[in-house]
C-alpha cells in the first residue's frame, strides 16, 4: 500500500517513532507523539498499521481511511511524518508475532522512502520507539532497539473504550475522526412541514451543531427562480450541502451528535420531481446521467444513523422562496413517495422513523430519541429541564 506522506525528517539528528492501529487517533497516542517530538530534534515518524478486516475496519475505519485521517491531523506539523504499513502487503500476520520481519519491512518502506536514497540498517540507531504497551517494549528491547515505555495509567484511554462509547470519550478523539463517530440525524420530508424549525429548536435545546438547507443561500445569492434550476445548480446543491454538513460534524461544537434537515437524498428527490415536470429547465437525461449518480455518490459518503421523515400535513406556507406548485397535498404526497423510494435505494430504510404528529409531538419524539442514545448524553449536552 503506497500511501506515503512525503515529509522528510532528518534521521541523523535522532527521530522518534510511534506505531499503532489508530482506530481512532486519541489523546493517549498524542501523549506519545508529543513526548517524542520534544525529545528528538529530527522529528517523529507516525506509522499507521493494519490489515484487511482489522478492528479499525470492523468499526468503519479501514487502513487507508485511518492513514488519511492521521495525515490530515498532522498536515501542518513539519516534525511529524505519517506513513502507512499494511501487514497484508508485508506478508506477515501482525507485528506482535513477527517483529523482526516487520522491522525489516519498516526499514525498506519508510526509512528508505524518507531518505529517498540508500540507507544502512544502522539507521535504526538513530530511532527511538515510543510505546505504551510493555509487551511491545519487551519485543523491541530484545531486538536491541531503543525504546521509551510511557505510563499508560496517566491517561487511561484506549481505542476499545472509545469505540464502545464514543460520546463518553469525545474529547479524547482526534477531531479528524469526528466524522466517523458522530451520531448524525437527518430530519427530512417535503417543504413547509416545519423541518427547519424542528432542527433549529432541537439544535439549540441540546447545544449541538445543526445545518440548514444550503441551497436557500445559493438561490438567494443567484436570484434564481425554482423553474430555472438546471444541472449545474443541482450539482452545486449536492456539493454545498455535503460540505456544509461535514463542516458541522467536524466543528469543535460537535459533542457527538449532529442534526440536519437536508442531504443528497432530498436534493435527488426534488431533481427527479423537477425533471418529470415539462415546465422546468432540467431534463430527464441530465437527471439520470449526471445528477442521480452524483447524488448517490454523496449519499454513500454521508453517514446517517437516524432519519426522521415528517409526513405532509397542514397548510403549505408561502415564504416567497418555495415553488407553489408543491403546495397541493397531491404534490407533497408524490414528493414523499419519491423520497421513500430514494431512501430504500440507498439502503437506509431501517434507519427511518415517520413523524406524523403535530409540531410538539415531533419535537418531543426527536428529543426523546437523542436523550436515549447513551447514559452519558445528559452530561455531554448539559440538558436544561
Tags for this model:
5-stranded parallel beta sheet; disordered N terminus; disordered C terminus; Rossmann fold; alpha/beta; 16 helices; 385 residues; 2 domains; elongated
How many domains would you count in the coordinates? 2
Secondary structure tally: strands: 10
Order of helices and strands: EHEHHEHHEHEHHEHEHHEHHEHEHH
- Architecture of the largest domain in CATH? 3-Layer(aba) Sandwich
Amount of beta strand: 5-15%
Principal-axis shape: elongated
* Cα distance spanning the termini: 52 Å
**Taking Cα atoms only, what radius of gyration do you get, to the nearest Å?**
25 Å
Largest sheet: 5 strands, parallel
Overall residue-averaged pLDDT value: 87
Looking at this structure, what is the CATH superfamily of the largest domain? Answer: P-loop containing nucleotide triphosphate hydrolases
Provide the spatial order of strands within the biggest beta sheet.
Answer: 3-2-1-4-5
Tell me briefly what this model is.
The protein has 385 residues and is of the alpha/beta class.
What does this structure look like?
The chain has helices spanning 27-39, 55-58, 63-73, 87-90, 99-115, 134-142, 159-164, 178-181, 195-206, 214-222, 231-249, 264-275, 284-301, 329-345, 359-371, 377-381; strands at residues 15-20, 44-50, 80-86, 127-131, 146-149, 183-189, 210-211, 257-260, 306-310, 352-355. By secondary structure, the protein is of the alpha/beta class. Helix 6 links the parallel strand 4 (127-131) and strand 5. Helix 11 (231-249) packs antiparallel against helix 12 and helix 11 packs parallel to helix 13 (284-301). The longest helix is centred in the middle third of the chain and has 19 residues, at 231-249. Residues 1-6 and 377-385 have low confidence and may be disordered.
Amino acid at each position: 500500500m503506497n500511501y506515503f506522506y512525503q515529509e522528510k525528517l532528518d534521521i541523523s539528528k535522532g527521530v522518534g517513532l510511534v506505531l499503532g492501529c489508530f482506530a481512532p487517533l486519541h489523546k493517549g497516542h498524542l501523549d506519545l507523539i508529543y513526548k517524542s517530538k520534544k525529545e528528538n530534534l529530527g522529528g517523529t515518524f507516525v506509522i499507521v498499521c493494519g490489515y484487511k478486516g482489522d478492528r479499525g475496519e470492523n468499526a468503519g475505519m479501514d487502513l487507508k481511511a485511518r492513514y488519511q485521517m492521521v495525515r490530515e491531523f498532522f498536515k501542518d506539523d513539519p516534525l511529524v511524518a505519517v506513513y502507512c504499513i499494511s501487514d497484508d502487503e508485508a506478508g506477515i500476520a501482525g507485528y506482535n508475532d513477527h517483529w523482526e520481519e516487520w522491522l525489516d519491512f519498516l526499514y525498506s518502506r519508510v526509512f528508505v522512502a524518507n531518505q529517498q536514497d540508500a540507507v544502512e540498517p544502522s539507521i535504526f540507531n538513530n530511532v527511538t520507539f515510543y510505546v505504551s504497551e510493555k509487551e511491545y517494549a519487551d519485543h523491541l528491547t530484545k531486538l536491541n532497539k531503543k525504546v521509551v515505555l510511557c505510563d499508560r495509567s496517566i491517561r487511561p484511554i484506549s481505542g476499545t473504550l472509545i469505540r464502545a462509547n464514543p460520546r463518553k470519550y469525545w474529547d479524547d478523539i482526534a477531531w479528524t475522526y469526528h466524522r466517523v463517530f458522530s451520531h448524525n440525524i437527518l430530519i427530512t420530508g417535503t417543504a413547509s412541514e416545519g423541518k427547519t424549525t424542528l432542527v433549529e429548536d432541537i439544535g439549540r435545546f441540546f447545544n449541538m451543531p445543526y445545518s440548514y438547507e444550503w441551497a436557500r443561500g445559493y438561490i438567494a445569492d443567484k436570484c434564481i427562480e425554482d423553474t430555472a434550476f438546471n444541472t449545474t445548480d443541482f450539482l452545486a446543491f449536492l456539493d454545498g450541502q455535503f460540505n456544509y454538513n461535514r463542516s458541522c460534524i467536524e466543528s469543535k461544537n460537535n459533542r457527538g451528535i449532529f442534526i440536519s434537515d437536508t442531504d443528497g437524498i432530498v436534493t435527488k428527490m426534488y431533481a427527479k420531481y423537477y425533471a418529470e415536470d415539462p415546465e422546468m429547465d432540467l431534463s430527464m437525461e441530465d437527471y439520470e446521467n449526471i445528477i442521480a449518480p452524483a447524488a448517490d455518490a454523496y449519499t454513500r459518503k454521508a453517514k446517517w444513523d437516524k432519519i426522521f421523515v415528517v409526513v405532509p400535513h397542514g397548510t403549505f406556507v408561502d415564504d416567497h422562496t418555495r415553488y407553489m406548485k408543491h403546495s397541493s397535498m397531491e404534490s407533497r404526497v408524490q414528493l414523499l413517495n419519491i423520497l421513500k423510494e430514494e431512501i430504500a435505494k440507498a439502503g437506509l430504510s431501517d434507519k427511518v422513523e415517520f413523524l406524523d404528529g403535530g409540531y410538539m409531538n415531533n419535537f418531543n419524539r426527536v428529543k426523546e430519541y437523542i436523550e436515549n442514545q447513551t447514559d452519558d448524553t445528559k452530561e455531554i449536552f448539559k440538558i436544561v429541564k
